[in-house]
């Protein structure tokens, strides 16, 4: 009887979006009279930080600091249509829609500034801090604040834009399964180190080393939040969670957090996260959807590590101590017979 | 977290101002001061509370429902049964023409899972609603339940859901969403080794800290404002419009920050009945799942069963992969027909295999309907695939990581569902993982790239 | 239903309410007084999202009867910032990106405050123990532990 160490690896990919009946999201962007920008959406922020990311995307596209952008979302009276926040689609689909809307608004903004500065709109650029200037002659400039005032009060123009991102509906071919259910793919590889107590069947995940390729980390701290939280959820899924511990028996279902098992703050694995960026051709600034895939590779990596440690395969989730002990017992019996 | 900028540096321009910056979250201040408004952080004068009477049986015919004692319970304002719901038979994906309608908002003639909603009680307080719900008398004739995928597909099994007429979803391709690529039988015939293995999983819960719910307010304009934590505003609005036969312009969905979703808040369950309650009583209505309901009533991630058969060569190439996937949808479709389809498209995983055969089934059982969850249609498949990869590597005596390099997809490779691979990065993820974990692999794998098949 | 009078201070201000006998402190705070910073994640005592501090002790307000709080001094996350200046824990949670959906945050901050009030310089294990009754489904806990430790550090710096 001993504590045995094992190591396992898994590599995965994950699709962005859920093309059911077409996969659309729309966005509207407009400026206030003093040159702040309002993004209107109906997408839902589940805690992943959609509002913040949409503000950064809009700010980048228009060429203003993020603080100048306000995001109004999750309201069917004010926000244009969004399919919803699921299938790792939020950042990708809504982000693309916001870029398109912001580009259109930026174009009007530059035209207004061009009129005020008596130059060609094509010769203008934003400085990223709230001004519009002539390329190569930054002293010739106008603030976005003033530009918006001129648009509203002198020129009667609306600095605004409409954005739409639609993945057209894909009908799978019945015979071959040819279909396009999603767009760009994120990737991951996880190495897990575990200790298995072969007397109790208990597994301790010592560490997970996760490498995630996510297209582009639009806000690295927020990406880290998702990836670390997701990695925790993957470990939880592998070893602890179920609403029916003896599925398909319907008994023993947990009804509270004492019975529904998840690792607590004292059960954390040492978690390493490394991010690679291969921008997606169709992604907003190259981003892919990392929200779901980050919770997947830990599960098989841990299963493989457990095999490496004690030589039994548990092919049913969750991998509970009971399952490990039963497998060890069966394995021992088999070895005995073999002898 | 570390950003490894060395990979794909030539495909990226790092000339951005706002993107790529670790800006503070605009919602964090609200979170730490307790000011962020979640849907339930509102209360309205005269607000009623809705509680459900739920089926205690897995499968039963409803002979009669007697609400008279509950009706008399102090504080009870209104009791709703199936006949109060204008279009009681629905399915969420009907919006995008994926039918048939197969689920009742409130059970009519039968219950098909333990926990199914039968009667809704609206009362002045949660407690009164709860107590009155316990007084509703439903007379059931208990039927044989079908509780597992195998039982559902066994010949002569009782039918779970008459709207399907069989215990699986019927695709245009038949009993499963099918993917056929190359010739698996020829692949197996040529293989040095064949390995067939089965995998399974139990349902799991999203367990967001905030349970599913909504608060509905009838407005002076005749419209209904519904404060909800749905993950999909218009999906909810449009489905509610169908169920209540109410023009969409009378509905106003307001979300906000949601206390975690993970896929658990994409089903349209609480809003239609709460809005109906508000309409029929003229008062605000709150319908919030208890933690127990969140765990046992709200859709879990489906249990799955997978059988994977692979043909592999001694040099590590997988030449054929045959997958049978079964997704336990529970009693109703919800999003599961799509989940099974997404699962079919996901196989054979991020590997280029010339011969692939996939059948992915959506199976009905007398269980809590399952639906979307983080990794929908993929997570369990990935568990099975990646454990299978480990077994295959050991079978041919190869290092498990090196074995994956041999098979990893590269740009331009055709996937089984006939989409060309673009933007692949599996090879690089594995290279970086090998480095980070000091996992020794041969130099030639470290020199490989997702952009080319060179070196293979 | 019989109503009972109850008086207590909430974040320093006097409150007097008639509450139903058996009403929880959580419901009274949220529905009667309008302090929605404690959240109702389970109403079973298993998630910690309703945590508040009553007379210096961490309490689950969903399991605390309001009528037992007569004369008590109650602190919630809504009352932590003084004169618009955030409490070091609030700052630390923001700086450490320790909130995602934010639903667990007020309860976490209460649990952490109860710890730091009695132990201004806790070890990591002590922090873990202090928040072990609070569920977070988003963060994987690590940033929360970091935030509490860094608040403790900044506290000791400002006290020095
Ligand atoms: S609401 Fe009190 S512990 Fe969950
Ligand atoms: S941040 Fe969502 S539960 Fe903790």
UniProtKB/TrEMBL annotation, chain A:
Alphabetized GO MF terms: oxidoreductase activity
Name of this chain's protein: CO/xanthine dehydrogenase Mo-binding subunit
Gene3D superfamilies associated with the record: Aldehyde oxidase/xanthine dehydrogenase, molybdopterin binding domain
Start and end residues of each Aldehyde oxidase/xanthine dehydrogenase second molybdopterin binding domain: 4-265
InterPro entries: AldOxase/xan_DH_MoCoBD2, AldOxase/xan_DH_Mopterin-bd_sf, N-heterocyclic_Hydroxylase
Matches recorded under PANTHER family: ALDEHYDE DEHYDROGENASE
Organism: Prosthecomicrobium pneumaticum
TM region(s), chain numbering: none
Domain of life where this protein originates: Bacteria
Pfam hit, one: MoCoBD_2
TrEMBL record, chain B:
Highest taxon, organism lineage: Bacteria
Residue span(s) of domain Aldehyde oxidase/xanthine dehydrogenase a/b hammerhead: 33-144
UniProt name for this protein: CO/xanthine dehydrogenase Mo-binding subunit
Entry-linked InterPro entries: Ald_Oxase/Xan_DH_a/b, Ald_Oxase/Xan_DH_a/b_sf, Ald_Oxase/xanthine_DH-like, AldOxase/xan_DH_MoCoBD1, AldOxase/xan_DH_Mopterin-bd_sf
Molecular function GO labels: iron ion binding; oxidoreductase activity
Keywords attached to this entry: Molybdenum, Oxidoreductase
Pfam families: Ald_Xan_dh_C (PF01315), MoCoBD_1 (PF02738)
UniProtKB/TrEMBL annotation, chain C:
Swiss-Prot/TrEMBL keywords: 2Fe-2S, Iron, Iron-sulfur, Metal-binding, Oxidoreductase
Annotated 2Fe-2S ferredoxin-type domain residues: 4-80
Coiled-coil intervals, chain numbering: none
Annotated GO MF terms: 2 iron, 2 sulfur cluster binding; anaerobic carbon-monoxide dehydrogenase activity; metal ion binding
Iron-sulfur recorded as keyword: yes
Pfam families: Fer2, Fer2_2
Enzyme class: oxidoreductase
EC identifiers of the protein: 1.2.7.4
Name under which the protein is recorded: Carbon-monoxide dehydrogenase small subunit
């Amino acid at each position: 009887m001993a504590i045995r160490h094992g190591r396992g690896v898994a590599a995965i990919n994950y699709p962005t979006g859920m093309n059911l009946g077409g996969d659309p999201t729309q966005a509207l962007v407009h400026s206030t009279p003093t040159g702040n920008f309002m993004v209107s959406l109906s997408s839902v922020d589940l805690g992943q930080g959609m509002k913040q990311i949409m503000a950064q995307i809009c700010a980048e596209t228009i060429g203003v600091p993020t603080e100048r952008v306000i995001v109004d979302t999750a309201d069917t009276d004010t926000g244009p249509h969004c399919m919803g926040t699921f299938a790792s689609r939020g950042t990708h689909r809504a982000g693309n829609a916001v870029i398109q809307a912001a580009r259109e608004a930026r174009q009007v903004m530059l035209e207004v500034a061009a009129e005020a500065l008596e130059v060609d709109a094509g010769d203008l650029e934003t400085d990223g801090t709230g001004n519009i200037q002539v390329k190569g002659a930054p002293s010739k400039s106008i603030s976005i604040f003033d530009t918006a005032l001129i648009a509203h009060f002198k020129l009667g123009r609306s600095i605004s834009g409409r954005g739409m991102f639609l993945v057209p509906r894909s009908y799978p071919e019945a015979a071959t399964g040819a279909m396009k259910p999603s767009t760009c793919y994120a990737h991951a590889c996880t190495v897990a180190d575990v200790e298995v107590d072969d007397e109790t069947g208990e597994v301790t995940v010592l560490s997970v080393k996760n490498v995630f390729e996510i297209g582009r980390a639009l806000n690295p701290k927020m990406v880290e939040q998702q990836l670390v939280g997701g990695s925790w959820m993957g470990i939880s899924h592998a070893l602890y969670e179920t609403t029916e511990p003896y599925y398909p028996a319907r008994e023993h279902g947990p009804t509270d957090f004492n019975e529904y098992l998840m690792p607590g703050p004292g059960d954390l694995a040492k978690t390493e996260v490394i991010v690679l960026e291969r921008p997606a051709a169709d992604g907003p600034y190259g981003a892919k959807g990392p929200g779901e895939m980050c919770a997947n590779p830990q599960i098989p990596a841990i299963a493989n590590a457990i095999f490496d440690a004690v030589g039994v395969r548990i092919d049913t989730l969750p991998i509970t101590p009971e399952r490990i002990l039963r497998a060890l017992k069966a394995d021992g019996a088999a070895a005995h017979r073999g002898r | 977290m570390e950003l490894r900028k060395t990979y794909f540096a030539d495909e990226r321009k790092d000339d951005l101002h706002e993107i790529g910056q670790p800006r503070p979250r605009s919602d964090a201040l609200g979170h730490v001061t307790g000011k962020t408004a979640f849907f339930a952080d509102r209360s309205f004068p005269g607000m009623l509370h809705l509680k459900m009477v739920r089926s205690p049986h897995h499968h039963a015919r409803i002979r009669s429902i007697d609400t008279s004692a509950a009706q008399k319970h102090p504080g009870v304002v209104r009791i709703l049964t199936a006949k109060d719901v204008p279009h009681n038979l629905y399915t969420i994906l009907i919006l995008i023409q994926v039918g048939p309608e197969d689920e009742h908002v409130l059970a009519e003639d039968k219950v098909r899972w333990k926990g199914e909603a039968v009667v809704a009680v609206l009362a002045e307080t949660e407690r009164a609603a709860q107590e009155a719900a316990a007084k509703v008398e439903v007379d059931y004739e208990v039927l044989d339940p079908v509780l597992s995928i195998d039982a559902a597909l066994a010949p002569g099994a009782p039918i779970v859901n008459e709207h399907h007429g069989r215990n699986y979803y019927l695709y245009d391709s038949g009993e499963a969403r099918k993917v056929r690529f190359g010739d698996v039988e020829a692949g197996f015939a040529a293989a040095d080794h064949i390995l067939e293995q089965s995998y399974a999983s139990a349902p799991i819960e999203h367990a967001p800290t905030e349970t599913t719910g909504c608060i509905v307010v009838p407005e002076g304009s005749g419209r209904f404002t519904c404060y909800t934590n749905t993950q999909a505003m218009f999906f909810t609005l449009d489905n509610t419009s169908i169920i209540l036969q109410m023009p969409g312009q009378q509905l106003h969905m307001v979300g906000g920050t949601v206390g975690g979703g993970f896929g658990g808040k994409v089903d349209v369950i609480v809003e239609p009945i709460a809005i109906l309650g508000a309409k029929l009583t003229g008062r605000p209505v709150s319908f919030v799942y208890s933690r127990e309901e969140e765990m046992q009533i709200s859709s879990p991630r489906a249990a799955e069963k997978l059988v994977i058969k692979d043909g592999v060569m001694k040099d590590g190439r997988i030449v054929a992969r045959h997958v049978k996937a079964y997704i336990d949808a529970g009693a109703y479709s919800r999003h599961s027909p799509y989940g099974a389809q997404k699962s079919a498209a996901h196989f054979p995983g991020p590997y280029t295999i010339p011969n692939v055969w996939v059948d992915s089934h959506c199976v009905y059982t007398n269980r809590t309907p399952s639906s979307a969850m983080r990794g929908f249609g993929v997570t369990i498949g990935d568990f099975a695939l990646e454990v299978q990869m480990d077994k295959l590597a050991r079978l041919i005596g190869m290092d498990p990581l090196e074995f994956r390099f041999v098979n990893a997809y590269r740009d331009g490779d055709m996937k089984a569902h006939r989409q060309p691979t673009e933007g692949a990065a599996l090879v690089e993820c594995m290279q970086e993982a090998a480095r980070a974990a000091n996992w020794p692999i041969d130099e030639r794998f470290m020199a490989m790239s997702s952009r080319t098949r060179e070196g293979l | 239903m019989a109503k009972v009078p109850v008086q207590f201070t909430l974040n320093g201000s006097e409150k007097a309410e008639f509450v139903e006998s058996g009403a929880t402190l959580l419901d009274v705070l949220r529905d009667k007084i309008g302090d929605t910073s404690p959240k109702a994640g389970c109403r079973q005592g298993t998630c910690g999202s309703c945590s508040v501090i009553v007379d210096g002790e961490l309490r689950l307000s969903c399991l605390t009867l309001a009528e037992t709080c007569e004369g008590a001094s109650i602190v919630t996350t809504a009352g932590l910032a003084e004169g618009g200046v955030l409490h070091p824990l609030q700052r630390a949670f923001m700086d450490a990106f320790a909130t995602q959906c934010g639903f667990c945050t007020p309860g976490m901050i209460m649990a952490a405050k109860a710890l730091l009030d009695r132990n201004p310089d806790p070890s990591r294990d002590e922090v873990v123990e202090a928040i072990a009754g609070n569920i977070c489904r988003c963060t994987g806990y690590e940033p929360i532990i970091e935030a509490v430790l860094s608040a403790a550090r900044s506290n000791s710096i400002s006290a020095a």
